[in-house]
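Structure, all two chains, one model.
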Amino acid sequence: MTTLAKGPEALRLPAPAPAPRRRGRWVSIALFLLPALVLFLMLVVAPMLVALYASVFRWNGFGGLPTDFIGADNFTRLFRSEIFAQDMGHLLVLVALSVCVQLPFSLAVAMLLNQRMRGRALYRVLFFAPYVLSEVITGVLFSLILAPESGLANRLLAVVGLESEWLADPGTVMPSIFLVMTWKYFGFHMMIYLAGRQNIPNELIEAAQIDGATGWRTFRHVTLPLLGPTIRISVFLSVIYTIQLFDLVWILTGGGPSHSSETMAVTMMDWGFKRSQVGYASAISVVMFALSLVFALVYQRFVMRRDLEGAMTSQGGRS
Amino acid sequence: MKRSLVLVATAVLLAGCGGGGGAQAPQDGSGAPAKVTLEWWHLSTADPIKSLWAQRAKEFEAAHPNVTIKATVLENEAYKAKLTTITQSGKAPDVFASWGGGVLRQQVDAGLVKDISGDVADVLPTFTPAALSAYQLDGKTYGLPTDIGLVGFWYNKKLFGKAGITEPPATWSAFLEDVGKLKAAGVTPIALAGKEKWPGHYYWAYLALRIAGLDALKQAAVDHDFTKPDFVAAGQQVKALADLQPFQRGFLGAAYSTPDGQSATVSNGKAAMELMGQWAPSVQTDSGKGLGDDLGFFPFPAVEGGKGSIGDAFGGGGGLAVGTDAPKEAVEFVKFMTEMGNHSKAVASGGVLPVLKGEEGAVTDPNLKQVATLLAGAGGYQLYLDQAYPPAVGQQVNDSVAELIAGTKTPEEVGRDITEVAKSEAG
């Protein structure tokens, strides 16, 4: 473990290899990298560039490359669009709910399942299981459960007279979608937190308890600060996921009723594949990309900087 | 971020790379004809047509041993989405269902649809002109019709009786009154699939047809102006209907043909009527218990003082178009599907309506007979707006009407929104 603390030096080979062998090594590195690199260029970089290119044209997607150059018109139209403004609103609501409700809930469940209790492994598997399901299956499942007339949820709630229209009412559709998102993803975040919690040396907890800290104070002043890096990465994953949210919404509501649950990706799908305005849809995808990129860079630069810097040294603490 | 970008971008990329592919080798001069596979896409997911068409495909394969037919059958919304995606990639299936109109025109303009005028010249005179018109653009034929009908109200006679309604309403004001009577009798008047927007657009389209008239709708396709007073008036009537809250609980989230959807709601007697095309009875049988003899049909009522005639019909049918690169057997297959002996079986089953001259006698169901008679006597005909106009405009009509029904937009805003998209599409 201590060698790791030296960081980059540890990666260096003991003695420099002779020149001809080193060239041979570069050839094999290139050969091994080539297939992945070609795929990455073809399937990630090239489509991104094509979308960027298409976003400055008026184009219905048919036949060859676009020709009707319109400059930034697609973007000005996008930024003036009410629906896009709504999409941004939905994004903010979902991010706020995820960070303030879903993640604390996952953390609470993780702390609970870190205690010694009967059937702990079973609960962990059960709570993690929804994450394994595909989003489409989750979507279909919940559109059946939340169906207003014959759905399971309303049949059960009818007993106490608390039926809701769930996905069919503009007022309840966002909370309903958030509910489904939480059902599917809290287990994933719970698992991350559990792993993070198990990395905290028990000596620290014990020491705190010997000093007289109660359960809450131990959590607040020992566990939580030490979980910091884990929490920051889970917030990061959650926000990036929310910016791209598509499958669940598409299956559950298609963005409706009347755009009240639409996300940027749904708007993009609508314009690109239903309305054949691929130039405009490309502009939406470019904005989504820029948003994700800016968020990722800013977040890593300012929020996760300490975690990234400390990654090499903090490992040494455990031995 | 990447995944979503890739969604659009791969389609874009495919569009660039595609184009040529898919052609089949022609016959090799002598001997047996080369083996070909016909990709056939359609959306008849409900019986009787679903099984009848599978049977036709088998018969065609038996008569042409070198042909294998690979059918892809998708539900309406999925069909439209998948067809758009594949056509944007520069390809079209060999044989595919089409409603004709503006969507077909876009595919034709992209060079994806075969001009079959020459191949079908011999059979063209056997079709009724109304059925054929959606597939003829600029004097060329791009497909043959398999169905033609109109949209109207399919209603539950028993529930109308329960509300004390003896005659189906002939005017819009009588219709609104009947909606009130049904509500008073504790019956949900109308089932609507609000999640899928196309069924809602029928209300606005029919009201626009009755109030503004057929010529105004055709004119709007040219001048892109949907803000005219008559269109706003149509929107106000949609709003007047929506304000009565005539739809089933949770209709904004309901689909059309799912077990909890619009069709099933009527089929199971939980709503008194739906505004739907000629396929409504067969989808009802498929999605729920079915109403049997309690099912009745009445045409969309006249609007007092409107410019349109009650004889004008709104609707569409279906037809088969052929991809540019399809083997010649594809045209053979389309002709096979629409020849009298084969097509009249489909008509007799109640799944489609006559498209051939002299086929009327094959209609057996009394409701469908009524539809066929109305159609034969129709003075003017308007294709579904989401097919007649280019996709961006058609989808905006669907979208805007959905907002109107949900109460989030006013009739004036709806006119403005559609106009804006129509202008952006026209450039």
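Chain A touches chain B through 62 residues (CB under 8 Å).
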